[in-house]
Amino acid sequence: MTSIRPLNGTTCLVTGSAGFVGNNIVRALLARGCVVHGFDIVAAPFEDPRLRWFRGDVRNPDDLYDAFSGVDTVFHTAAMIATLTYAPRAFGDLVRSVNVDGTRNVIRLAQQRGVRRLVHTSSIVTVPEHERAGAREGASYSSARDLYSMTKVESEQLVLRANGQSGLLTAAIRPGGIYGPGERKTLIGPLMVSLKQGAPLVMFGDGSSRMDYTYIDNLVDAQIRAAERLVEGSPVCGEAYFVTDADPINTGAFSQTLVRHVGIDARSIRIPRLIARGLATAGERVFQVFGKPKPPFSLIDVDLCVRDTYFSIERARRDLGYEPIVDTHEGIRRTAQDARRYYDSL
After folding, report:
1. pTM (predicted TM-score)
2. Does the pLDDT of residue 129 top 90, yes or no?
């Protein structure tokens, strides 16, 4: 049985703490009696007597330095989600500087300032496309050339290689499509905005493929479980774990179910794979040349919708004691209640 060192009462740093994942980790840590250092480029979304907020850029070590004072555990969630394969060089450099250089800064400061544990939020896109149908964690990485896959692969590798150096123990969590109440930037928010503007619900492919989703409560639980098991000799140290609802579903079916629960009467259109890829490529190329507009969907977005992308969570069950708290059906129901309020407010 894996040893556990509880987080309760310790001081934890959460990077990207104003984002959806980071904010939920902050709240969960506060509920456990932790002192939490929040670090983000924007102001704190709420106040709490045990929350110290540090405003800065993860790319700047000087901004980060004070946030590491007295910290035992770091949850690194700060990242740019940019799935474009074709983009202006300056945009690509920005994504890389945040996702890779920012991660490198977090690791170095954690080592310099005596942090014991670091849990990194990675992604299922780090896995090669031909190993995405029920596979377990392996040694190979994706060779995809989009900005998100490339930078997530490199940042995860940096974190795992840092395990055991300067007293720091590390692990990475690979969630599927992250969703839940309050999500506004990647899945739920953009969909509600699009439907409010009268656009149809767009689905790619023939509807036969399945993808993993990860409800926010499941992800936060796994992050904390991983941190508590980062002790000397633990099998968790230096490893990456798939963390999902263990209930893969077609992306179009996910969206249709959500919209039905929200109570919106939206028409649906289905775009075949080749046409969708052509449209995505054209949109990315225009953005690459002119710097605008940013395309509504990318090649990788299409591929995730038309290819099986789901994984085994057996190692997370074994090493982290992880079990999904909320299944996808219930997760969609809870998310829809919040999404309805957001839709009505637009």
Report:
1. 0.96
2. no
